[in-house]
């Protein structure tokens, strides 16, 4: 290893030959020796310098990983990251750096190539069959007076137990315009979970200190809850300074703690038992405003603990970006989740935003999911979008990432970040179009096909004998069975197929 001294950059691997367009995974251990005066903690950064035959300087710098909020008390910390090098890259140098006046040690640097998995889709389909389905057995007993050839048993899945939803504009759900009504009708037809894009955020609910406005969220919930929609509360607080309510930004530690406590109390008093999830402190790996203000490096723990004490019906989540769509914060998120669980913090889910600014790379995503799953904490995809101008690429990108996520045993739900071109953060991620008559576009049709055809169970059974049993696998969810004789329905039966509970139904004709 070589060190550049004052620049606090340590070269740990130098001019390593790489394959053009190759995918690589890097890991090392870093230990801080000190914290600079006046600082709570520091960030360690892993950069790659990509060199080609035409490169005359140090090479193109690309960030592989960041580990924020490190202190000497943490000891040796595992830092990992990945990269796909450029098409003309021939060599790669990897460097570690931190803030000025910070000393650190690096150990066990290791670089390995990520092998491209050409069979990932077939493997994913096998996992889906294994983890998202259960066994259904239909035992048919037909009396002598009936002809088996006229008996038809239709089994239809009505809904999925796997959470599938989208973020929504709260105001549009109770709006009176034709566009609002079309938006709401389309949403209710195709989704079972919702996240309010902005209306639940603290700075919007309480723009003025002491004056919390519940009406927008309340009116939207009046549409969602009666229709059986489960809702994620996004979010109680947000760690970035620009996302903190303006009236709170100049407050001292006591005022901040009192305001946070009141925020949690107000939500619990007003929405007890309403929300399925809360994102407790949004994007905390990217913003430590509350920790700095309170001078408590574990202040987020108190947010979780108080939220759990005030409403024990809701699951409490972390929520962050660049933890799976990119590998920059993947190992940092793993560390955050593990450390919070070790401290007894009730983290129900690791929320993975998944804003895909480029085409999803299944090999890199698989590696990142593996790292996050090491926490043992369930994963929930909270803000998925695939931003592609080319509609065909967008369609394939959504299909690939949904198939990968749905096939992973640690993923417990998927929320996309909007669907309608007229009401979405990025039009290049839209799945539906039209002003008053909203329809799936090409990408939306692909997504819709997955959830309503490929990943939905429908069976039509025709007995050939007086006594016969039919066995098949179905996706977990709610079902309806219809027994028809000579074209007319004779009996209807509803049932649920749950994980770990196979279904056995006797049908007597």
UniProtKB/TrEMBL annotation:
InterPro entries for this protein: GH, GH10, GH10_dom
Organism: Capitella teleta (Polychaete worm)
GO molecular function: endo-1,4-beta-xylanase activity
Database matches in SUPFAM superfamilies: (Trans)glycosidases
Taxonomic lineage of the native organism: Eukaryota, Metazoa, Spiralia, Lophotrochozoa, Annelida
Superkingdom of origin organism: Eukaryota
Family of the protein in this entry: Belongs to the glycosyl hydrolase 10 (cellulase F) family.
Keyword Hydrolase appears in the UniProt entry: yes
Transmembrane domains' residue ranges: none
Keywords linked to the UniProt accession: Carbohydrate metabolism, Hydrolase, Polysaccharide degradation
Protein name: GH10 domain-containing protein
Record-annotated GH10 domain positions: 175-450
GO BP term, example: polysaccharide catabolic process
Pfam families membership: Glyco_hydro_10
């Amino acid at each position: 290893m070589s060190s550049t001294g004052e620049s606090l950059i340590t070269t740990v691997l130098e001019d390593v030959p790489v394959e053009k367009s190759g995918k690589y995974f890097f890991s090392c251990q870093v230990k801080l020796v000190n914290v600079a005066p006046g600082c709570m903690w520091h960030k360690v950064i892993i950069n790659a310098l990509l060199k080609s035959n035409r490169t005359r300087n140090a090479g193109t710098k690309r960030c592989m990983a960041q580990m924020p909020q490190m202190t000497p008390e943490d000891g040796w910390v595992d830092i990992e990251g990945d990269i796909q090098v450029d098409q003309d890259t021939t060599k790669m140098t990897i460097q570690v750096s931190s803030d000025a006046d910070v000393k650190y040690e690096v150990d066990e640097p290791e670089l390995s190539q990520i092998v491209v998995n050409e069979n990932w889709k077939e493997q994913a389909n096998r996992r889906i069959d294994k983890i998202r389905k259960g066994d259904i057995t239909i035992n048919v007993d037909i009396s002598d007076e009936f002809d088996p050839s006229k008996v038809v048993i239709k089994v239809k899945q009505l809904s999925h137990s796997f959470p599938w939803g989208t973020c929504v504009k709260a105001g549009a759900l109770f709006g009176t315009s034709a566009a609002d009504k079309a938006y709401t009708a389309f949403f209710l037809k195709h989704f079972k979970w919702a996240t309010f894009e902005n209306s639940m955020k603290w700075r919007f609910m309480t723009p003025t200190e002491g004056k919390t406005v519940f009406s927008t969220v309340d009116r939207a919930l009046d549409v969602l809850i009666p229709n059986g929609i489960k809702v994620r509360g996004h979010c109680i607080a947000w760690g970035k300074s620009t996302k903190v309510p303006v009236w709170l930004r100049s407050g001292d530690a006591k005022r901040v703690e009192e305001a946070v406590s009141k925020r949690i109390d107000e939500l619990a008093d007003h929405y007890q038992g309403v929300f399925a999830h809360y994102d407790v402190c949004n994007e905390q790996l990217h913003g430590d405003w509350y920790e700095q203000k309170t001078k408590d490096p574990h202040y987020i723990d108190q947010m979780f603990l108080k939220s759990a004490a005030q409403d024990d019906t809701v699951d409490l989540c972390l929520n962050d970006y660049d933890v799976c769509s990119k590998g920059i914060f993947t190992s940092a998120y793993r560390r955050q989740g593990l450390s919070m669980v070790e401290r007894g913090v009730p983290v129900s889910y690791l929320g993975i935003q998944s804003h895909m600014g480029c085409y999803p790379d299944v090999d890199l995503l698989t590696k990142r999911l593996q790292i996050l799953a090491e926490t043992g904490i369930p994963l929930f995809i909270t803000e998925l979008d695939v931003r592609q101008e080319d509609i065909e690429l967008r369609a394939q990108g959504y299909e690939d990432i949904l198939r990968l996520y749905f096939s992973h045993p640690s993923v417990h739900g998927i929320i996309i970040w909007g669907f309608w071109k007229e009401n979405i953060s990025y039009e290049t991620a839209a799945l539906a179009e039209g002003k008053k008559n909203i329809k799936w576009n090409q990408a939306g049709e692909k997504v819709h096909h997955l959830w309503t055809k490929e990943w939905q169970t429908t069976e039509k059974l025709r007995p050939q004998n007086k006594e016969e049993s039919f066995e098949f696998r179905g996706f977990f969810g709610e079902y309806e069975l219809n027994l028809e004789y000579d074209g007319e329905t004779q009996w209807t039966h509803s049932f649920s197929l749950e994980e770990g509970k196979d279904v056995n139904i006797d049908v007597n004709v």
